[in-house]
Design a protein that fits this description.
The complex is a heterodimer of chains A (about 130) and B (about 130).
Chain A (H helix, E strand, L loop, with lengths): L4 E6 L2 H17 L4 H20 L4 E10 L2 E10 L7 H4 L13 H8 L2 E7 L3 E9 L1
Antiparallel strand pairs in A: 1-2, 2-3, 3-5, 4-5
Helix pairs in contact in A: 1-2, 2-4
Chain B lengths: L6 E3 L2 E5 L6 H18 L3 E5 L8 H16 L3 E5 L3 H10 L7 E3 L2 H25 L1
Parallel strand pairs in B: 2-3, 3-4, 4-5
Antiparallel strand pairs in B: 1-2
Helix pairs in contact in B: 1-2
The chains are: A alpha+beta (about 130), B alpha/beta (about 130).
Chain lengths: ~130, ~130
């Protein structure tokens, strides 16, 4: 059940900071522990940067999700960039096509409860993450 | 453009990061710090991140780069004040910041830098008497 939903654009470097702040505000709203907040916001930061640098910009939507009595926060990062041809390789620690350390995708996967990535070359990339309370 | 202030304290430089850094700000800190190390012939750099609520792989890499660059310029970097939740997250993310000296707070960080600078001076004295 969707309680609330909002979408934010990611088009400049400052937006990565804004996404972090928005993700933090939602985590606080859901009363996540400080460690869970930090992990989730860090994952959001990695994915927002990916959207900007590899996807050429895009958007993030946030919503509160429910599963029985559990509540969680779902973030969806979407871009219309070049897409990823080899997802398995992109999810490997240390693999990078940019100047980073190759921890963006693999690292954020470890920081969340649910991680889903859909990508086709030329079709853009969508990454969905969920953290349950 | 905004900049993170760098303070000169004896032969050390002090940086306290108190804003949520966007990537360009992190890059300019790298440039400003290396320029100031060269300008003042600084021996130590202390970076306090107690106000930082997250350190992601980009910021982590920037901190590791600063440590490596200052080492090449003959200065030592100490990172202080990392919040426990940030440390847990960094390790889980897959970064362990090898090669970076850390201290719990600014006081201990300064002690560590002083010791390091003193050791280097002592070592130089020994070299001088031997030659």
């Amino acid at each position: 059940m969707t309680l609330n939903r909002e979408t934010h654009l990611i088009s400049v470097s400052d937006d990565v900071v804004r996404i972090r702040q928005i993700a933090r505000a939602w985590c606080v709203e859901l009363k996540f522990s400080l460690v869970d907040q930090t992990k989730f916001v860090t994952a959001a930061s990695e994915l927002a940067r990916n959207t900007l640098e590899h996807g050429g910009g895009g958007r993030m939507s946030a919503e509160i999700v429910e599963n029985g009595a559990r509540r969680g926060l779902k973030l969806v990062f979407q871009d219309n960039g070049p897409g990823i041809s080899d997802l398995e390789l992109a999810l490997k620690d240390g693999y990078t096509t940019g100047g980073g350390m190759g921890l963006g995708l693999s690292g954020s996967k470890r920081l969340v409860n649910e991680f889903d990535i859909k990508s086709e070359p030329g079709q853009g990339t969508t990454v969905t993450i969920v953290r349950w309370k | 453009m905004d900049r993170i202030p760098i303070l000169k304290f004896g032969d050390c430089l002090l940086v306290t990061i108190q804003v949520d850094m966007h990537d360009e700000l992190a890059m300019s800190l790298q440039e400003d710090l290396t320029a100031q190390i060269a300008k003042y012939a600084s021996r130590g750099v202390l970076i306090d991140i107690s106000s930082l609520e997250i350190v992601d792989s980009f910021i982590g890499r920037m901190l590791a780069n600063i440590a490596a660059m200052s080492r090449v310029l003959d200065a030592q970097t100490v990172l202080t004040g990392m919040q426990p939740a940030v440390a847990i997250t960094l390790v889980e993310l897959g970064m362990s910041l090898p090669g970076i000296k850390t201290a719990l707070n600014i006081e201990r960080g300064m002690e560590l830098l002083k010791e390091y600078v003193k050791q280097e001076v002592d070592a130089e004295d020994v070299d001088d008497t031997e030659s």
